[in-house]
Each structure stands twice: as C-alpha cells, then as structure tokens.
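Report of the visiting student (M.T.), summer placement. My assignment was to run the structure pipeline on a short list of targets and document each run. The first record concerns Aspartyl/glutamyl-tRNA(Asn/Gln) amidotransferase subunit B.
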Amino acid sequence: MTNFEVIIGIENHVELKTNSKIFSNSPVSYGESPNSQVNEIDLGYPGALPSVNKKGVELAILACNALKMKIDNILRFDRKSYFYSDLPKGFQITQQFHPIGREGYLEIELNGAVKKIGIERIHIEEDTAKQIHKDGKTFIDYNRCGVGLIEIVSKPVLRTSEEAISYVSKLREILLFLNVSDVKMNEGSFRCDINISLRPYGFDGFGNKVEIKNLNSLNNIKKAIDYEIKRQSELILSNQVVEQETRRFDESKQETVLMRKKNDAIDYKYFREPNIFPIKLDNNWIESIIKNSPELADKKRERYTSVYNFKLEETNFILSDYYLTKFFEDCIDLGIEPKKILNYIITDIKALLNKNNITIEKSYISPLDIKDICELMDKGIISSKHAKSIIPIIFESNKKAIEVIEENNWKLISDENEIKSLLLPILQENKSLIMESYSTRRERVEKTIMGVLMKKTGGNINPKISMELITQEIKKIN
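After the run finished, the structure tokens were exported:
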C-alpha cells in the first residue's frame, strides 16, 4: 500500500439505554417474541402522534459532552422519507439539519502515539425494524422499530484498520461507562458502518466511496477494511473504476460483497417533522446532566494505577467489563482492600463468569458477600483456602458465607487448648526430628509440623495461632 492513501470514516448507530422507545411508550427489550413490543405510534397508524423521550435526550447530551461536542440547546427533528419494508411509517424521524451535537473528537493511542479523531456530528433518530431472511422469504420483527438511537459520524481522518479498531473500541468504552448504551455488537445495540476510499498520495480530492454496512465485531471491522483496501487498490492499478456502492462483509467468504450500487445520491426529501415542535432545552438542565456525568474509564484507569497501585494490565482487566467495574467499586465503598478484591476477581470470579457465560450482575454473588468473607478471614474463622471454596457456592446458590461455612463445617479451630490437644501428640511422634534438626533448620521443622497438623484437621485450623503454639511447644522440648 505504498501507492495510495486510505481514507476511512465511520458511522456508529448506538441504541440508547432507555426503558421505552424514543417517540412512544413501547418497552425497549431484546429477545422478546416478534412484534410483541410495539404500539400504534411505532407502526405509524394514522393519527398516532409521537412525543420525545426525555431520558433519551439526556443520554445524547452525555455522549456529546464526553466527545467534546458543541451541544445545540434547541431540539429539532426532521423526516427522512423513504419506503422500505423495515420502516412502517414510510419515513424515519431523525435530525438531518440540526443535530444535537457538532464538531467533537476523541483521542486514540496506537503504538505509543496519540491521535485526535474528529467527530462531525451526533444526531438522535429512531431505529428501524429487524429483517430476517430465511428460505427465500423475509420476516419482519417490528420490536426494534422506534428504539432510540444516536448516530455518531466521524470525520474521514482514519487511515488504517488498526486506527479504525482503536477508534471504535475507545468510542464503545466511553458510551459503556456513561451508561448511554449497553453497546453489545452481537445484539445490534452498537452497529458500525465503514466508509472507505483510496487516493494517490498528495492528492487533495476523494476517490469514490464504498460503504460497508453493519459490521458486528472488531475482528470483522479489521478484515473488511483490509480486504476492501486490497480490492480497491487492485482495481485502480488495473485501470478499472472503483464504483460508489454499498457492500457487506461475508464471514464465510472473508470478503466484502455487493449489496447495491449508488450511481446517484438518494433524494430523501428531508423536511421538518411537523408533529414535534422545536423544544428549547434549558441551559441549567443541560449543565446539571453534564455535572452528574458518570466517571469515564480513563479517569478510573488513572486512579486504579496511581492510587491502588494496580498494573495497567490488571486495571484493563477490571475495566474490560462495565458490571465487573461496578462490582469492584461497590466493594471499595464497603471498605474492602483493593488488592484483595482484585485477586478474587482475577483468580475466582472471572473464571466462574466465563464458565457460566454470564456477567456478574446475573450471578448471586454480591459485594456484601465479599465483605463477609474478608471479615471472616480477618477474624480467623476461615482460611483463604475456605474462601476459594465458598465463593463458587455463593455464586450459584445465593447462600450467605456463614451459612456455607456451617453446612460444610469449615470453621477454623482457633481455641488454643483444642489446638494443643491436637499438636502435642504430633510433636511426640516427631521428637527425634525436632531434637536433631531444629537448631539448624528451624523453619523447615516448623513447616513440617504445621503440615501434619493441617492434614490431621483437613486444613480447618487457625494457621497463625497454630504456628505460635508450635514454636512455643518445640522450645519446651528442645
């Protein structure tokens, strides 16, 4: 690719995390029975009038602020007119002329270098229905119709597939920690369209743009871009024309395939939405939304590494999962030492989440459970080995730590007299070892005695008290 400069722009459609749709009170949900979550407004019945979801506007403002955008304090909507089976009204309510946010950016870091990626606009609109193609037929599920979206349009300043992935990953992280969207690419709540063209180095104009629709994973984004760069460069070098068209990425073929050609620009006949008058947004209301904006991952990353002294990879491990991050911070709020929580998450909890293929809020374990376990360990009631056995049971059964301990008889023996009664026979059995080796290999002898004591009690003995008694009683023998 020494001949051409690659020009990439990205459009992300992001479903807003609201309980109801953007212009109706139909519920927003995923995986429900087809066509069960719609009403007359979503389906465009005559006389059905839309109203604007206030929460949806708040979420759009949060996104605009995080992406350093100029926020329009007058909310205006337009109609995008086109006839398609996934659009029952025959038009889509959007913000063509007056997007809620303009001229923002985010920064990506790649190979140690920071690059600012300009963002042209954010606008609010409604989603379309979902089409399922099967056995030569098309089935339509209108449940998604009317779900609130923000469309985030980058400027054409990305140059490689690596930059594109870094941009999409960073954008996804920002929106996730703002709680604007659950940004699940596999469920379609975070969709990605890539616009890509090539031009000779030094040329200021743009080549014909190809749009790749609905990429649903970071891996597919990279593969689609790299394939399209190769395809377009081969066409140009063989004196053929790169046509302006819409393509999709075929996973089975690992290549982009034609959907439709774009010989002429489509005239959507945009005009102002007559059923929603312009709404003046109070500046104090906008400022209050911004003031209460959730903490972004970058701020958390800085705090975890500087205040908690976590390694960067440990920090990113926590921040890779929004709900795990919330769980971690709820534990911090309960006064649990950060390193302890980190160790439980990395070694025990994450393995259970992967095994059950769920996120932590879907499990039974809670920050209070972790606090109980830590307190029971601090009091010498259980050992760290017990804790590792207790966590999986709580995770799956909703039992409390003390309940699990009592059911399994996992309390440590901490009574000195009881420990002595178990220890003295062991010392007598190992008297010769003590007499011969204690003066020269004290630590090894003590560990040997402790190992026998642990084996005899099945590990259910307080190690601190036991070691003190071992030292004390050996001195009497020696």
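Residues 4-280 form one domain. The first helix runs from residue 54 to 66. I thank the supervising group for their guidance throughout the placement.
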